[in-house]
Design brief:
This protein is of the alpha+beta class. The chain contains 15 helices and 10 strands. The strands form 3 sheets. It has a 4-stranded mixed β-sheet with strand order 1-4-5-8. Helix 5 packs antiparallel against helix 8, helix 10 packs antiparallel against helix 12 and helix 10 crosses helix 13. The longest helix has 37 residues. The chain is globular and about 95 Å long. It binds flavin-adenine dinucleotide. The site of flavin-adenine dinucleotide has 21 residues, from strand 1, strand 3 and helix 13.
């Protein structure tokens, strides 16, 4: 009987340490240096963040999901999940703990598919937090259907030449290298005809046309680049994995990325619930606390129940990934978690905002950002609709059609079957009457 919801005391002690450390040492960075998370830090900022990272290493919590050969602790996804729900409160915490997106996903695919030279050049500094990376896959004319991608890489002697457009390539402006998905063989299916390339950001021809911001950010400023790859030449050894392997690599990357977002979302949603409860206990109206109003009690109960359902599902999925050591085997649950994540964060953040009244919708509280974050989660790493299709297809695999015009659970059919099963007994009973 192996079901168990306890955390080992030694790891719980580490989580308790992380909780206090994030609140006291890291969250102040969110207030003063928001937006600089993915910018190579200047000397002044390094003086602040390097000792924090060193402390995390001393506590053996640096890049906790990666194996020791990659500089991590090899604790796996479940423990990362427990840690990430603490880190999710803060935009700087994943950087300080060496597990920030998109670098975690990018590090995982280089670790998985990279040559020793590629690992040495990109993976080590990425894990050390010395450089940042960008994942350049979505194109302006289509994101959720990668078979529409047109960016082309052609072989020219010992080099590949990349041409095409990419859109919403997050952190391209501050990244040291980009992982670019391109068509290498247009004559076969997209699933065999696309490849991934490791492209240093300063390669001639990598042109950031503009940086797109999210709603609320000033026009012309933002972290999501529209890029034109204009005759970008890279050596043959810039290919990541084999030729035609882009889809397999993308699945590895996005599987990890999606569940890591979900883990952090638990932390953010919990923060919104904490704020709801504090406000409900602090604010009076019509002679009693908000906490005494049934509507507000309903908000709190709904938020708590939604959060707990989501948390247990994420932890179960992380546990399954550790068990199977293969994201593909857990595809259904990763997709299902991705489907519910935007709604959970939206609902809990909206209730928190509502309970805070005018202050809640003001720019002096973080709820607007949380709601925008919820909308982003319904798109980044693939839209909700596409993940629902994945879930449904995977669920349906475990079922067979009825071999009859009536459903298996049709009551007349079941009664007939039960009568046939117990015919002898029923005859005997009738005979005794
Ligand atoms: C904050 C943020 C960061 C991102 N970072 C990156 C990044 O670093 N690198 C990168 O390459 N991309 C990135 N993306 C892009 C992201 O992967 C795409 O937005 C996503 O794949 C959807 O593609 P699209 O925006 O082109 O929407 P479209 O493909 O045009 O889809 C639009 C809408 O159509 C509907 N739809 C689409 N397909 C289906 C379907 N099969 N069935 C039913 N309805 C459907 C959905 O409602 C969907 O939202 C990021 C996006 C965001 C918002």
């Amino acid at each position: 009987m192996a079901w168990d919801f306890e955390t080992e005391p030694e790891f719980q002690a580490k989580l308790d340490w992380a909780d206090a450390f994030v609140r006291n040492e890291v969250e102040p960075l969110d207030v003063l240096f928001r937006g600089l998370e993915f910018t190579p830090p200047d000397e002044r900022l390094r003086e602040i963040i390097d000792p924090l990272k060193a402390e995390v290493r001393r506590q053996k919590l640096w890049a906790t999901h990666l194996g020791p050969e990659l500089g991590g602790e090899g604790h796996g996804q479940l423990k990362l999940s427990l840690l990430n729900e603490i880190l999710g409160r803060s935009s700087w915490a994943p950087i300080i703990f060496g597990c920030q997106a998109p670098d975690t996903g990018n590090a995982e695919i280089i670790a998985h598919y990279g040559t020793p030279e590629q690992k040495n050049r990109y993976l080590r500094p990425l894990l050390e937090g010395e450089m940042f990376s960008c994942y350049s896959m979505t194109e302006p004319h289509g994101g959720s259907d990668p078979t529409l991608f047109k960016t082309r890489a052609t072989k020219d002697g010992d080099e590949w030449v990349i041409n095409g457009w990419k859109f919403f390539s997050s952190n391209a402006a501050t990244a040291s290298f980009l992982i670019v998905m391109a068509v290498t063989n247009p004559d076969v299916s997209a699933y065999q005809g696309m490849s991934m390339f490791l492209v240093p950001a300063d390669t001639p021809g990598v042109k950031i046309v503009r940086n797109v911001g999210l709603g609320g950010e000033p026009l012309g400023e933002g972290a999501h680049a529209l890029i034109h790859y204009d005759d970008v030449r890279v050596p043959a050894d810039a290919l990541l994995g084999g030729e035609g392997q882009a889809f397999a690599i993308a699945q590895t990357r996005l599987g990890g990325g999606r569940i890591h977002h979900a883990m952090r979302t638990i932390g953010l949603a919990k923060k919104a619930l904490d704020m709801t409860c504090e406000r409900a206990l602090s604010r009076q109206t019509q002679g009693e606390r908000l906490a005494d109003k049934q509507f507000v009690q309903g908000y709190i109960a709904d938020s708590y129940a939604q959060l707990m359902q989501f948390r247990l599902f994420v932890l179960y999925t992380a546990w399954s990934i550790d068990k199977h050591k293969d994201y593909r085997k857990v595809r259904k649950d990763i997709a299902a978690v991705k489907v519910i994540m935007p709604t959970v964060l939206h609902d809990i953040a909206w209730r928190a905002m509502q309970v805070h009244g005018a202050l809640g919708v003001s720019n002096e509280m973080p709820f607007h950002q949380m709601l925008l974050g919820a909308s982003i989660m319904g798109l980044a790493d693939g839209p909700t609709e596409v993940h629902k299709i994945t879930v449904a297809r995977q669920v349906l695999r475990d079922y067979r059609p009825s071999d009859d015009v009536w459903p298996t659970e049709h009551l007349p059919k079941q009664v007939a079957a039960a009568r046939a099963k117990f015919a002898e007994y029923l005859e005997h009973e009738v005979g005794n009457l």
